[in-house]
Design a protein that fits this description.
By secondary structure, this protein is an alpha+beta fold. 53% of the residues lie in helices and 18% in strands. It has 18 helices and 13 strands. The strands form 3 sheets. The protein has a 5-stranded antiparallel sheet, sandwiched between helices. A 4-stranded antiparallel sheet has the order 6-9-8-7, with helices on both faces. Strand 3 and strand 4 form a beta hairpin. Helix 1 runs antiparallel to helix 7, helix 2 runs antiparallel to helix 5 and helix 3 crosses helix 4. The longest helix is centred in the first third of the chain and has 64 residues. It starts with 5 loop residues before the first helix and ends with a strand.
Length: 633
């Protein structure tokens, strides 16, 4: 700063103040907008989270109510008939050819699918039906079913002539139509005494097996069976949380069950498969995320106590390829990614490691900025979900990048506007600074002129500020200097004239500049000495002043003639006039010049006599040769 000009300092100071003010105002505005956007988004997420909680609670409550309401009437009748018909098959045998077909069916379709899901070899004995009744019914309704997997409920009955097939023909369409129509994914009837699955609409390979000691005795459906068998209270409805259901080739499945009573005695269980599509429809809002204010990255999802999803991720539904890339970036094992793609589901396949999910499972409600399960910074609102024995958490979230995109756009616009304002301020400040320093620069220029010797410089004094006061002070100072300079020049001129009256100009110049020894020998000069005659008589006849004026007139005329002929006056004393030719400047014709001067001087006196009626005379002496010039005394 010390080496900067006043103008530069003004520019730096004013721009610094402007920049500081702009940064402070912009920062405060940015922070206020950030807080407002965050609060608004939290409010929207909380509202949406509360709505989804109410909707999923209503959905599950409706499913519980449907299960309880349909535990009477035709379902009881059908269950009684199926249990009796199933028990009648106790002595059945299976044709070896049919069993071979069933075995081949397991080897070609079931085992590869289970191995693909588990990533390990699956032995036939671990999943093959353990009883003849199970093998018999699985052949008739699964291996020999003309309908493909996922559509096997289309088979109304088997043409084996058994009482079971007659019961199946009587009730299957009614049961499947009733419960599948209500939105359930499957309907299952279980003998409460044996745990045997006496009926299933979808005909998965758990059909006809025992949940007590069969190949699926360790799944969530078996747990539900055991819980209800221990306490088979009328109207009791319990939900079994999602597990990978081996009978469905590892697809995560949840069940809802209730006991069935006949003459006041529990004899069977009605088990219904929870509809994942219905849950997803609620959680995704019918996949209308943007309509619900969730933009491009927002979603609402369910999470279980194991921190695994209980609903499907929006990103798998909308952009599976990008979802896979994100999972790979998070180092998710490829086998898990393949399973999600194969099942087209993140239920029990996606680990949700986020603060929001942990707080929801812990039973807390709240909002916060946190890292989402895909690694992005998010705003989240969470709450617990407790219904029918389930302990889930519900999280509504959206990426911060999307939420604050308008803020970043505003910040970018503010930056551009700030730069334009700073540019405008710079131009204004430059103009103001130039206006401010113009009189200062003018003052500096005039002072520099005065310092170079120009004492005639003037200063502008019309300003009434400090610069004007300074200019007036400098003006007064220069005026004093100018006055003293004029006095000095006048004194110097008088001294010079005095010297020139008594010696040649060259010697007077040397004397003036302070040369000490000015003795000089000149080899060839002419000296003229002239004296006026009759001056005393003329003086007596006139006044003193007139006599002095006449003498000055004649001396001036002699000086003019001397200058004309190159003659240098040495001195005048009274009526005498001493001059020399060739002293300062060597002249070859110094004698001729001297004679011509003498003749001119004589003519001057004669002309004066004629004009004034005087009788003056002039005596002239001329000498030529070497001389010594010096100043004595």
């Amino acid at each position: 700063m010390a080496n900067l000009s006043i103008k530069s300092k003004l520019l730096v100071m004013l721009l610094s103040v402007s920049l500081f003010s702009t940064v402070v105002v912009a920062s405060l505005n940015y922070y206020a907008t950030y807080q407002a956007l965050q609060a608004s988004e939290f409010s929207r997420l909380t509202t949406l989270r509360a709505a989804r909680t109410a909707q999923i609670d209503q959905l599950l409550a409706r499913l519980v109510l449907e299960a309880r309401a349909n535990s009477e009437g035709v379902v009881v009748e059908a269950a009684r008939e199926f249990v009796d018909a199933f028990r009648q098959l106790g002595a059945v045998t299976i044709d070896p050819a049919k069993e071979a077909v069933l075995t081949e069916f397991y080897r070609e379709q079931i085992l590869p699918a289970l191995a693909e899901d588990s990533g390990a070899k699956v032995e036939l004995n671990s999943v093959y039906p353990e009883t003849l009744v199970a093998r018999y019914l699985q052949y008739e309704y699964i291996a020999n079913n003309p309908f493909p997997l996922g559509e096997r409920e289309g088979m109304v009955f088997a043409e084996d002539g058994s009482a079971y097939s007659q019961v199946h023909r009587q009730f299957h369409s009614r049961l499947a139509g009733l419960f599948l129509g209500l939105g359930f994914s499957n309907v299952i009837l279980i003998d409460i005494e044996t745990g045997e699955v006496v009926y299933t609409a979808r005909k998965y390979i758990s059909f006809a097996t025992s949940l007590s000691n069969g190949p699926y005795a360790n799944g969530n459906m078996a747990d539900l069976f055991r819980n209800l068998r221990r306490a088979p209270d009328r109207g009791r409805v319990e939900i079994a949380d999602f597990q990978r259901h081996r009978a469905r080739r590892g697809i995560p499945t949840a069940f809802i069950g209730t006991p069935l009573f006949d003459d006041g005695r529990p004899f069977a269980l009605l088990v219904l498969e929870l509809p994942v599509d219905a849950i997803d429809h609620v959680m995704t809002g019918g996949q209308q995320w943007e309509r619900d204010g969730l933009g491009k990255t927002g979603e609402v999802y369910l999470v279980g106590g194991d921190m695994l999803m209980r609903s499907n991720s929006r990103f798998l539904i909308e952009e599976p390829e990008q979802f896979v890339e994100q999972e790979r970036a998070l180092k998710t094992p490829q086998a898990e990614i393949d399973r999600m793609l194969r099942q087209n589901s993140t239920i029990l396949n996606m680990k949700v490691a986020s603060e929001a999910a942990e707080q929801a499972i812990a039973g807390n409600e709240g909002t916060a900025a946190s890292i989402g399960y895909l690694g992005a910074e998010t705003l989240a609102s969470w709450a617990p979900l407790r219904v029918a024995g389930l302990e889930w958490g519900l999280v509504a979230k959206i990426d911060q990048e999307e939420v604050f995109a308008p803020l970043r756009a505003m910040a970018r616009d503010m930056l551009i506007e700030a730069l334009l304002i700073l540019l405008l301020i710079t131009l204004v400040v430059m103009a103001l600074a130039s206006s401010f320093v113009r009189p200062v620069n003018d003052l500096i220029a005039r002072v520099q002129l005065a310092r170079s010797g120009n004492t005639n410089v003037t200063f502008a004094t019309e300003n009434s500020d400090e610069i004007g006061d300074l200019a007036r002070s400098f003006g007064e100072l220069i005026a004093g200097v100018r006055k003293q300079t004029l006095l000095l020049e006048d004194a110097t001129l008088q001294n010079q004239r005095l010297l020139e009256n008594v010696m040649p100009k060259a010697m007077a110049q040397r004397m003036r500049v302070g040369q000490g020894d000015i003795t000089e020998t000149i080899e060839d000069v002419s000296v003229v000495f002239a004296q006026l005659r009759g001056l005393a008589d003329f003086t007596q006849a006139t006044s003193d002043n007139e006599a002095v004026a006449v003498l000055k007139r004649l001396i001036a005329a002699f000086d003019e003639a001397a200058a004309k002929h190159g003659v240098e006056r040495i001195k005048t004393v009274g009526d005498t006039y001493l001059a020399v030719t060739g002293l300062s400047v060597p002249l070859l014709d110094h004698m001729l010049r001297t004679v011509e001067f003498a003749r001119t001087a004589r003519a001057i006196v004669l002309n004066f006599n004629r004009e004034q009626g005087a009788n003056l005379g002039l005596t002239v002496g001329i000498g030529s040769g070497p001389v010594i010039a010096d100043v004595m005394g």
